[in-house]
Protein: Protein NEOXANTHIN-DEFICIENT 1
Organism: Erythroxylum novogranatense
Amino acid sequence: MVLASINCFFTCRNLLVIMEVGEPKRASGYGEPPWRFRGRALYQLHLVKAETARSFIPKEFRLVEAFGYTLGGFFLASYEDSPAGPFDELVVIAGIMWNPPTSCAWAARVLVSSDDACNHGRKHVGLPSQVAKFSKRVTAIPRQEGSTFNGFLNMIGLGGTLSSADDCADVRVTELNGPSVTDICDINLKSVGLKSNKWMGPSVKMSLPSFSGGTKYIPNFLRYSCHIECRVRTVRPVKVSGLPLESKDGVQETFSHQNCLPAESTRDELDNGLIRSISVMLSKPLLAFEFTSLKMRVEAPVVLTHVCKNTLGTSSQLS
């Protein structure tokens, strides 16, 4: 559930004015908040077309954008401990909105490998959560004796099988919706965690606020915060690719930013939100960060009872 908080990355003329009231929302199956998670994660920033991001973000909010783009991307995590037990998560981040004095992110889609995590995200945090399968595989040459590898690949069970920079480690994310199965993307982790003596980066503490809600489960808008302690280092952006599509005339097509349909699906069968989510994943990468020794505390969401955009470009706090 971690979403990025980007402070003043873009300029924005219209500021959001928000009054936050109400009792924290509680999740019976997940236990009492705050909810705590431990694991590792990869966070990648992308340039996302503002037009694509706005299709996810409610009209009540102001998208932070410049030159037709906003800052989105994805957060790929593997939790070894959580209220739902171990599970994998992919958060597709559409973009950011301004929330003085910081900014808040908006999730386009949240894919998790746990039914409990999916239900909790939908019914208690207001997230667009879906159950998914995370298939992890390696194409590798035989491992040389004495070679050791760690980092993010060890966390997902792939690190010990790699032996050279030519090896290819991938995670395929497949959304499960009843009998319907849709491949979302392949994430190539070749550039992450191939050195056994690498510096894991400094220890940091941060707070990442995010907006959610406006769904059939939670019609109200919410704001929640994730407080993180971890080691963080920059890594090369990983490659995200789509999967071949068999078109109606039998011609193989390949994913791109403009042509991003999952395999074994036709345009008539896909929901537009899924297509746009894949488009976010396939947008232009900028930076990537590896989070290790991750400890995350998620606070209970707070209801936003009023959201107002000032058309004159100034703002005032309601109370």
About this structure: The mean pLDDT is 76.
